[in-house]
Amino acid sequence: MSQRITIDPVTRIEGHLRIDCEIEDGKVTKAWASGTMWRGMEEIVKGKDARDAWMIMQRICGVCTTVHGIVSVRTIESALNIDVPVNAQYIRNMILAAHTIQDHIVHFYQLSALDWVDITSALNADPNKAAEILKGVSTWPLNSPEEFTRVQDKIKKLVASGQLGIFANGYWGHPAMKLSPEVNLIAVAHYLQALECQRDANRIVALLGGKTPHIQNLAVGGVANAINLDGLGVLNLERLMYLKSFIDRLGDFIEQVYKIDAAVIAAGYPEWLEVGQGAKHYMCMPELPMDGKNGSFLLPGGYLENSDFSTYRPITTHTDEYLINGIKESSKHAWYKENEPQAPWEGTTNPDYTGWDDDGKYSWVKAPTFYDKTVEVGPLADLLCKLAAKHEPTEKHFNDVVNLYQTLTGNTITVDQLHSTLGRIIGRSVRCCVLNETLSIQWQALVDNIGRGDFTTFVKPVFPENTVIKGVGFGEVPRGLLSHWVVIKDGKIENYQAVVPSTWNSGPRNFNDEPGPYEQALVGTPVADPSKPLEVVRTIHSFDPCMSCAVH
Ligand code: NFC
Q1: With 0-12 CB in 10 A as exposed, 13-18 as middle and 19+ as buried, what is 349?
Q2: What is the Å distance from ligand 1's center to 484 Cα?
Q3: What angle is formed at CA 301 by the lines to CA 291 and CA 221, rounded to 5 degrees?
Q4: CA of 19 to the centre of ligand 1 (A)
Q5: pLDDT computed for residue 159 by the predictor
Q6: Rounded to 5 degrees, what are φ and ψ at 455?
Q7: I need a labelling partner for 35 at 20 to 30 A (CA). Which of 302, 331, 453, 460 fits?
Q8: CA-CA distance, 325 to 282, in Å (whole number)?
Q9: So which residues are the catalytic ones?
């Protein structure tokens, strides 16, 4: 006998997401993902000056706040075919990398850890044993018995006060919680420390971007940071060194805490390497451009089909015709008037709410496809594509996670097992380590270029008169592949479409009725107690949904 459950809203995400599942014999057999809020950003921006698009479109989201701005300026610059000064690229790259690092730390600890970590069990832990577990594994100075005792006392006081605050509504004591009290205590301690450490990543964004969330330093044609090494410029020597101090400090937490915790959590839940495969096709963008035209990148991107590395096709530029011609969005199952797949430059967004229909329309999220296929994007796609590309930093950090997992469990993690809920969590930690290394590289590239006497950060854009121009900008952002598409006439926006990572992943059934990645990933998920569907939430959280991005 099948049972239907609805989780609405799913919490510890950004935005408004409803998940419906049919459960039979303790497993999910069918699922629906629905974005339940629409705002119409693509309509709002029409008719506006193209130079202002980034400022408006950045407001799609307050979580991935910088990336819509950066991709939007790339979009307008692609329409104008202008070369951006490399100083501007390095500054944008550091913002993008630092922002993504901050996002991944917050996702692991604040948004998803409590799906796996039972706070109440940490009360029974032995702080000495907790410190012993990490001896020889991590050099993090706060992994001490004293610190673990301090954290445990803090939680005890919280429980005694009856005011659990942020820890009030977990699935504590759930049969799917399996970590030892000591590992739970370690995770709670790191949860609290992560709140502090993520601020260093945000400081990098704010120093370069003027503020965060929603940076202020972008411009079509570059950035507004003035470089003046010994004067009172916005970016002087003192600021550059200040920036470097945050970059260095951030690395310790990522390497000595986050990467290790990812392996420790995986070791506690090996069965989650067998659950949660989404779409079988994966795509990620090349990112961190090192030239002015988005044609050469520090990090590779590509596309692979049917979970098969032999199909890997590198994507080497943001102007790749194969890439641009393959992307469409369909609204057969979304609350918009048009049903047929549309290429984004011709895309329309005409809202038409008709209520929930299991076999018809049931979401505000459109369904993107690549050459008619539903594709997963995000940290797992990023990991798989970079492993297929034999990207050395990715291989190195992935091997570190696997080696620690092996030490803890005696087993290895195969690439086949990455198509899973844990695969996404591991992918995000690996990506965070890779991005952390890029921060120093970008910083050095900027300092070296300034040292050669190049202080340029901006070229003035000139819009042609009486001509329609089209642009597309891409980015590999925290939740995966982002693209913005624009049609401009006389400097004003005629059409604007955003095809967003969480749209790819949380999309409903596509024009061919194939379920979206969330919906596919949920099928087969075990559910011990349908009234407390922790396991469903684990898989959904592994994607790190951002629904205000997904719908926009
Ligand atoms: Ni909001 Fe964004 C979406 C990201 O999926 N990353 O491109 C935007 O949010 O987190």
Answers
A1: buried
A2: 12
A3: 30
A4: 19
A5: 83
A6: -105, 5
A7: 302
A8: 17
A9: 14, 61, 64, 68, 479, 502, 546, 549
Range scoring the smallest mean pLDDT among 172-176, 261-265, 467-471? 172-176
Give the integer Cα–Cα distance in Å for 144 and 352.
57
> Which pair of tokens denotes residue 362?
């049931």
- Any ligand 1 atom below 6 A from CB of 484: no
B/e letters for 185-208, b = 16+ CB within 10 Å, e = fewer, are bbbbbbbebbeebbebbbbbbbbb
Among 70, 101, 549, 552, say which to mutate for ligand 1: greatest number of ligand atoms within 8 Å of CB.
Answer: 549
Q: Quick one: which of 84, 77, 79, 95 has its CA closest to 458?
A: 84
Q: Which atom of ligand 1 is nearest to the CA of 549?
A: 1
Q: What is the pLDDT of residues 378-397, one digit of tens each?
A: 999 999 999 999 999 999 99
What is the atom index within ligand 1 of the atom nearest the CA of 482? 7
Question: Does 229 have pLDDT greater than 80?
Answer: no
Chain-centre distance of CA 425, in angstroms?
Answer: 11
Largest CA distance in the chain: 74
The pair of three-digit structure tokens given for residue 428, joined into one six-digit string? 């995000």
Contact between 477 and 285 (Cβ < 8 Å): no
pLDDT in tens, 62-77: 999 899 999 999 999 9
- Residue 230's Cβ-count burial label (10 Å; 0-12, 13-18, 19+) is exposed
Q: What is the pLDDT of residues 82-118, one digit of tens each?
A: 999 999 999 999 999 999 999 999 999 999 999 999 9
Determine the pLDDT at residue 430: 98
Which amino acid, one-letter code, is at 540? Answer: I
